[in-house]
Amino acid sequence: MNPETKLEELLIDAEADDEVVQHTPPAVSRPWLLLLGLILVALNLRPALSSMSPLLSEVSNSLGLSAAKAGLLTTLPVLCLGLFAPTAPILARRFGAERVVLGILLTLAAGIILRSSFGEVGLFAGSLIAGASIGIIGVLLPGIVKRDFAKQAGTMTGVYTMALCLGAALAAGATVPLSRYFADSWAVGLGFWIVPALVAAVLWLPQVGHKQGAHHVAYRVKGLLRDPLAWQVTLYMGLQSSLAYIVFGWMPSILIGRGLSATEAGLVLSGSIIVQLLSSLAAPWLATRGKDQRLAIMVVMLLTLGGLFGCLYAPLEGLWGWAILLGLGQGGTFSLALTLIVLRSRDSHVAANLSSMAQGIGYTLASMGPFAVGLVHDWTGGWSAIGWIFAVIGLGAMLAGLGAGRALYVQVSSQRL
């Protein structure tokens, strides 16, 4: 089968329930309303992560947080992406995917308001709740897209990815100006993002009453944890994600340390994320034109590392160029990680299980990067040594990517229950 055709058919399945695949999707009475709801929900899956970083120095000074605690604050939400993702299919089977999405949107809103209103305890508790909420919704949305927009799976995947990047970019660029405009308070800047979460919940409400008549067929996939290729895909997913969440969590602080204002640093991060829209769509298309994906992986990783080192060490006069380079690289690394899950799987059932493994273990691994940056900054009192973290993680991602990018399939068995 042509790799592009396979990517079109399986990309959404790759993030579906790891044991349940839905067939015979029911008719959607108002697809435009569902589409709008999906876009708004997806927009809320990154602001809780990217809104903190431009204000991190101000929050730390206000509450007296050490760099290690600040590192933990950037680590908690990412860690929750991996730890809570496996609960999504369990909740969906018990309550239905639409009800779970609505409930978790409200939980996300509660986490956002908690972290902005109750001091240090609320800050950490709210970050944990927000991260867990994002992890659960992130698993459920692709399955809903596959069920109700099966014939437009590829297009909807692009829309879904763009909504994620747009939400991250808006939060990174707007949080500091919002905090300055409303009462000049970091709490207001962080708490503002409850508004889009509640708007999404209101517009998602009609979906809760939509009865789903899908037929469920359960499959069990065995041998994934013993397959070297599956681990290479997982390590590539985790290591490239670690660099991404270091950028989300720490890049504005790094740039502020180099002399930028909080507003300028947030805008640089926002611009870099917006650039990801281009490469996140282009990289998978280009990667499937060759015999395998190893060259594409090396190119996007080199772009990413070049952008990171440029932002850390190069003169500030060329900062925007390095930020654009970083965005092009990281948009490609993330989209290729999703693509590898699909291309290394023989069918959608294997892809779903490989996706669960790559996200659950990978995001847990990714959370260690932001924490390590906080520790190193605390020990050294500066940012120069952070380059070693970039180098080690980047080299690891390249090595894992060279293995994961080979034109092979994971060797597992898929059995219908």
TrEMBL record:
Q: Which Gene3D superfamilies match?
A: MFS general substrate transporter like domains
Superkingdom per UniProt: Bacteria
What GO terms are given for molecular function?
transmembrane transporter activity
Q: Cell inner membrane among the record's keywords?
A: no
**Pfam family for this entry, one:** MFS_1
Any one GO CC term of this protein is:
membrane
Q: Which UniProt keywords apply?
A: Membrane, Transmembrane, Transmembrane helix
Kindly list the residue ranges recorded as spanning the membrane: 32-50, 70-88, 100-118, 124-145, 157-178, 190-208, 229-248, 268-288, 295-316, 322-343, 350-373, 385-409
Name of the protein in its database record? Cyanate transporter
Q: What is the source species?
A: Pseudomonas poae
